[in-house]
Amino acid sequence: MKKTENILLRNREESSAGVPPAPNRQDACATLTGRRYWRSLDELSDTPEFKDWLHREFPQGAGEFDDPVSRRHFVKIMSASFALAGLGLMATGCRRPEEELVPFSKAPENGYNYGTPQYFATAMPTRTGAIPLVVKSYDGRPIKIEGNAQFPGGNGGTDRYAQASILNLYDPDRAQRFTSGGKTVSRDAAFKFLDDLSKKFAANQGEGLAFLVESSTSPSRARLQTIIAQKFPNSQWFTYDAIDSGIHQRAATQAFGQSVRPIYHFDKAKVMLSLDCDFIGGEDDAHNHIARFAKGRKPENGGMSRLYAVESLFTLTGTSADHRLRAPASQVGEIAAAIATQILNRPATIPAGVDPKWISECARDLAAHRGNVLVVAGQRQPIEVHLLARAMNSALGAIGNAVTLLPALGRAGDSIDELSGQLNDGKVETLVLLGGNPVYNAPAALDWVATQQKANSVVRLGYYEDETFETAKRPDDWHFPLAHYLESWGDATAGDGTLVPIQPLIQPLFGGLTELEFLARMAGESQTSPHNIARQTFGRSEEAWKRFLFNGFLAGPAAKPAIVSATALAPGINTISAPSASNLEIIFFRDAKMDDGRYANNGWMQELPDPVTKMTWDNAVLVSRKTARELGVQSGDMVEIALNDRKVTGPVWVQPGMADYSLGLALGYGRERAGRVGRGVGFNAYKIFTGKYIETGATLRKMGGTYSFACTQDHWSMEGRPAVREANLNEFQKNPEFAREMHEKEPPVVAPLYPNPLDEAKKTALQQWGLVVDLTSCVGCATCIVACQSENNIPIVGKDQVRRGREMQWMRIDRYYTADPAKETMADPYLKDSEQQFEQWIDDVQAVNQPMMCQMCEAAPCENVCPVSATMHDQEGLNVMVYNRCIGTRYCSNNCPYKVRRFNYLDFNKRPLADLKGPFYPTPLLHQTDGKWDLLSWWQHPNTSGMREADEWDLLKMAKNPDVTVRQRGVMEKCTYCIQRIQQAEIAQKVKAGPSGNVRLKEAEGTIPKTACQQACPAQAIVFGDISDPDSSVTQWKKYDRNYAVLGDLLTKPRTTYLARIRNPNPAMPDYHAPYSSEEYEKRGGEFHAVEKGNS
Amino acid sequence: MADTATQLESLVPPKELRRGPLVPAHRSLGWLTDHLTAMPEGKTPRWWWVLFIPAAFCAAVVLPTMLIYLISTGVGVWGNKQPVAWGWDIINFVWWVGVAHAGTLISAMLFLTRQHWRTAIGRAAEAMTVFAVMCAGLYPAIHVGRVWFAWWLFPIPLTTGMWPQFRSPLMWDVFAVNTYLIVSSLFWYMGLIPDLALMRDRAKTRVRKFLYGLFALGWTGSARQWHNYEKAYLVLSGLATLLVFTVSSIVGMDFATSQLAGWHETIFPFYFVAGAVFCGFGMVLVLLIPLRKWCHLEEIITLRHIDRICKMTLMMSCIMAYIYGIEYFVAWYSGSPYDAWVFGHRLFGHYYWFGGWIMLLVNGLLPQLFWIKKVRQNLVLIFVIAVLINIGMWFERFTIIVGSLYQDFLPASWHPFYPTWVDVGTYVGTLGVFFTMYLLFVRFLPIIAISEVKAITPQADPHHPLGGAKGGRP
Fold first, then answer.
1. Chain centroid to CA B34: how far?
2. Among A414, A572, B165, B259, which one is least packed by beta carbons within 10 Å?
3. Average pLDDT of the segment spanning A186-203
């Protein structure tokens, strides 16, 4: 079991005088619990020194403290003490006034209100930028990450990774100690080692010193890098990112002859072409892309952009595209060249198997919108394709408009290949690894485990004791725990060039170091406090610094575009022979959840359904139907893929919309040492990874044996049901009410026998809540699901339980594949689900996404079947769930047509994942945890016992949102529209209103809260508010012609409604179609009303 | 005098119209008493032990193990999931309620309609009812997520002021099943009293005398007691007959009040009553065919009885077939695409098409064999058909519950359902409870209502041409 090494505030000596003697944690822990970190205020304060001090400081109050009865008084004293004492006591907790943390909304010096959330601006660093954030913190615990809505150009949206990153903070499997040779050493010894190292290399000019780092946009790190380069002139600096997004910058720099990087403005382009660029899904900065893309697609405003996508994997970008060309990734360059040539009106050679008309019409459309176009090439494409895209952008006048070029960021180090060469030549004596996990994710050809050993000493700053730690345990190898960004001071540059601060919300839980502190100590700097380093880099006045922290970004003009317009040269494209069954193409892609593997131990991410495949807890070999047929495999078959004499084994997943003869391999799985959650999940595609993301010449062999996936969605087709309603833009303009006409036959509305009690109750309510989801904006990125999970304390259930259909996420995104009905046969509806993978219709599919959460039906079917009134309506129109009252008959779930209710089949909150692997779940009657009989611990501590180890418990509890009940087993739960936020807003308004009586929440006054999903949505596709307020946006949205209710024909009167999805395909294109879903609906629609189509 | 006698003789109906005696053996009343008490009073036969030991093992070991595991660990030990939140728990509940039906129907409804043949099988069927309701009643209690709060289903005045929600059909269920359990137990027990007194009077050991005496409630067989007894029996049978209809109707309404395609049907109350009676008759046959042989009751439970039960079963099967037809008709006629999907997939669907075929063929078609008299007299064949009926009815409930839930309105949430070993174990456990109790009943109580059977012997009826004081054979 891992134990916390050190929780005590390290810099106690820096704290001001008058600080109470902090309890001696080592002693206290040894006698009290054996655990070494903060559990409760009581525990913390229950030491003689503290009591003694209390008596001296508060002679009157101290008596109260000893009196166990007067709890309330105690709390008062405690808050007073803490306010005065500052940080001395708050061991793991808040480090509020100690260093210059300036809160986002409230100043702490006015007194801190316990239980009131505080918000701090910070940022999550990414490889090529940073995501500006506002983090919600309760009593010193960060619990929820939100985007910084005040960031210029930001809308408060974030991405999945940012939302989930908070769980990494509380990961019990984090690196928690300093080690040398794999053995725990003291922090002081570790620092001494760094000092010695610094002195040693200062003496020899850094000869034999090499750094391997990950990309970063931190100016402070760049500054330290410069210092190190000065102090150790012979040291070397290498950069490696398994998922390298730097190609955009490299290509732009090469194309324009200046050190620049491109920024894409998807909102400014009318016609876009994506060359295997998953800018909505796998590319860095996707949340910004989504925001801009969605902004450019508002059918009501008439302005609706058009997206052409050429891709082999079926990505979220392909899902959102109006025209999608399914082509092998290795052929994208040729296709791009063909389009480019066509734009110039020259005859082009069209790659085999591609419809020439697709190319020519796409080129014509691009050319026709000169000045308003955008061509983007994907991160996995070779640089030639990027150069070609730049050339097209230049030729079509996109530079300075939809593409702006900013000065390049970061100083690229040499590549890992060169480092490998240096190591093999014996030129590296000490290898310093900052972050990263090269043993796991370095290109296979480098044989990194052996290469790394060639350095005498490997010094690593790492977040986990992972694969790299495991192979660096020689006596001279050192490992330092890395601090989470929520524990760190630092800075970064956002994608648009704006400087953003990284400020901590909590003292490092396990005493981890930041990169800045580590580098400063390496460099032998006198100033090693990361705060001071960042402050020093920032320069400027103290006032400006405070404002910087307060805002979460450096206000003022963002970086100026480097080049306003320029012409880039088109490169030649090498022709690569098209892949075939014996010459398969492999695409290594960034996983939507694991990134490059760093989120492997994050249960939310593991359990998040992949946005396209809906697979959880696994990766797979994605192949097209045709390829699977030819290779004689089907979903679940184990196969061996051979590439360059390296082999990897994994299960096959037949993916609709995949290009033929392409294999999609998600990186980031198959971790051998990731922690208790992520170990052994999926297979490790890095085993055949060469550093190139597209490879040809692979072969596939069936191994025998099958594999079982845990997918949250089994059935692919919508079966002609109008759940998602779609139309093309021109149809929509001709018949704006099409979505409402797609209703199924409704029963005639007769006067109800019993009036709905809500009609009467409404009159007493101040607001009526409602929510609208715009399916045109929604790209299905699934950020909302993670946000909801984080906000609402939703448990993780594990792969086996997902396979059994017991995932707990309150919202899901339904993804349906729709196909040309001409390809479907009437037998299809009666085919077994698993046989869908063999049907031709899945080759060229469209996909639609539909976020599905509680619909808050006014006539809720769940309510009248509950025998104990555990689910009922409040007067504000919410379908509320009373957990305390629920006995778990589950009838409500059966009667919910949307199936949005989730049931705690097991005690998911108390059981660790290993105990949920079925088919035998250990019973608490016999189970032992930490060597203690569970029943006994339950008897002693009814609320904290369970089948989890103690260290897990403490961290788990810290991660929970205190506003939301943690549900017991046997209880039904569901989306509440984030009722805790509504309640807080209502209470706050009541307090504010005082005698004025102005207690109604109004959007105009900014008092309407945002639901977690709405807040996190980068596309702004979700709007929540008061539907009784005629001016609220939700009311406005509900008035749109596109607004419809799913399953409205059941007369459930849902409060959640959807805006129909509008596609904008080009009528001249050969694959122009009405949306397949509408065609399917009409074809199957014997019972449905036919859509009156304007253009037929 | 001789003339009159001759005239009386001519009143005997012609042979083809003559009804045979219900107890054809022409045994004396004393022989009947001895014979019918032989099982409770005699030595335990070997077959009883062979059956009892495994049944008792299931009841005393398997079921408690499953329940302790379930309650300590969570409903997740079963296969229930989203969207199939009800699985074997409710399937078996409905199945046991169905099994519970024939008993009361036979003893109460046939009593009211003066069908005297019921006397030979009434007691055995009623016992089946009582034990099956107990098994049925177990499921709603244990299937809830928080078993320790299951008592919230009862309307208990609490300081919280919380009452159950009376609009919920699950609430109605609580009343219906409990009422049924109480009334059918009372009915069964009341019918036992004269026989318990008989056992008491014949008891040879003090323990038996005491125990039978205790439960015989001081029955002396006086005319006054018989008078009251008959009245009470009539009243109770009136009540019980109503309950036959209410219980399964309400169980049907558990489903019909929902809006799920495949459940939301107005025919459900009637459908469930018919199905329950059908299933119950199947179980009566399963129990009685071996019992009459092993307990040497061929002369009491005759082939004519079996024949009549077969005819009843046939009738119920025709009703079932009709309802199946109506369901499909309505699914088509309603025009609801959801109904069309569910019913199409019952037979040709993705996963559980076999359930639909078993249901149609076994319940609707197979009992049509009972049109053939030879089949109705072939005990082996009847037994096989009866077992199949019980299986068929189980699959009917499976098809209705799982088949409707796993593919409902939004295809994205569709998931197939698979039971776990705990589902199976719990079911086996309740079967064990049922058979244990039934075997104990067979061993310690007269399984034939002795007093009632005596009352229908020819010699007990002074007006019967063959009976009364005249005696002798025609």
1. 28
2. A572
3. 88
Helix, strand, coil content of chain A in percent (nearest 5): 30, 20, 50
Cβ atoms of A194 and A522 closer than 8 Å = yes
Q: What are the phi and psi torsion angles at A202 (to 5°)? A: -65, -35
Q: Chain A closest CA to B427's CA: distance in Å?
A: 18
Yes or no, beta carbons of A1087 and B171 under 8 Å apart? no
Burial category of B471 from C-beta neighbours within 10 Å (exposed 0-12, middle 13-18, buried 19 and up): exposed
Please state, in angstroms and rounded to a whole number, the distance separating the CA atoms of residues A963 and A128: 35
Q: How many domains does chain B have?
A: 1
Q: Has residue A76 got a pLDDT over 60?
A: no
Number of neighbours of residue A885 by Cβ within 10 angstroms: 18
Provide the terminal-to-terminal Cα distance of chain A, rounded to the nearest Å: 69
Q: pLDDT by residue (tens digit) across B453-471? A: 888 777 676 665 555 544 4
Looking at CA atoms only, how far is residue B429 from chain A in angstroms? 18
The side-by-side arrangement of strands in the sheet containing A130-138 is: A118-125, A130-138, A141-147
pLDDT of residue B422: 93
**Helical packing angle, B268-294 and B379-405, nearest 10°:** 150
**Quick check: B335 and A1087 CB within 8 A?**
yes
Q: What is the arrangement of strands in the sheet containing A1056-1059, beginning at the earlier edge strand?
A: A1022-1026, A769-774, A1056-1059, A1043-1044
Residue B73 lies in a domain: no
Report the distance separating Cα A900 and Cα B83, nearest Å: 9
CA dist A360 → A321, A326, A357 (Å): 18, 16, 5
pLDDT (average), residues B371-382: 91
Helix (H) or strand (E) holding A275: strand A271-275
Q: Which of A16-25, A756-765, A774-783, A817-826 has the highest mean pLDDT?
A: A774-783
CA atoms within 13 A on the CB side of B402: 27
Q: Decide if B76 and A921 are in contact by the 8 Å CB cutoff.
A: yes
Between A75 and B365, the higher pLDDT residue: B365
- Amino acid in the structure at residue A1033: S
**CB A694, CB A651: distance < 8 Å:** no
Task: Give this complex's ipTM.
Answer: 0.90
Give the chain B residue nearest A1047 (alpha carbons): B409
CATH number reported for the structural domain that contains residue B428 in this entry: 1.20.1630.10
**pLDDT computed for residue B96 by the predictor:** 93
- When CB atoms are compared, the residue of B72, B168, B415 closest to A925 is B72
Check the CA dihedral B57-B59-B60-B62 and report its sign.
positive
Map residue B250 onto helix, strand or coil. Answer: helix
Residue of A nearest to B420 (CA): A919
- C-alpha–C-alpha distance, residues A1073 and A1082, integer Å: 14
For residue A296, count CB atoms less than 10 angstroms from its CB and return exposed for 0-12, middle for 13-18, buried for 19 or more. buried
Question: Does residue B70 fall inside a structural domain?
Answer: no
**Is residue B406 one of the residues assigned to a domain?**
yes
In a domain, B10, yes or no: no
The residue behind tokens 């001789």 is B2
Range of the domain at B374: 79-147+167-467
pTM over 0.90: no
pLDDT of residue A29: 36
In this structure, how many other beta carbons lie within 10 angstroms of the beta carbon of residue A1065?
Answer: 20
pLDDT at A952 over 80: no
Measured between beta carbons, the chain B residues lying within 8 angstroms of A830 are 344-345, 348-350
What's the rounded Cα separation, in Å, for the pair A939 and A942?
Answer: 6
Query: Distance between CA B289 and CA B308 in Å, rounded?
Result: 13
pLDDT digits (tens, 9 = 90+) for A663-697: 999 998 999 888 888 888 899 999 999 888 998 88
CB contact residues (below 8 A), chain B span 216-245, against chain A: none
Task: Indicate yes or no: CB of A867 within 8 angstroms of CB of B143.
Answer: no
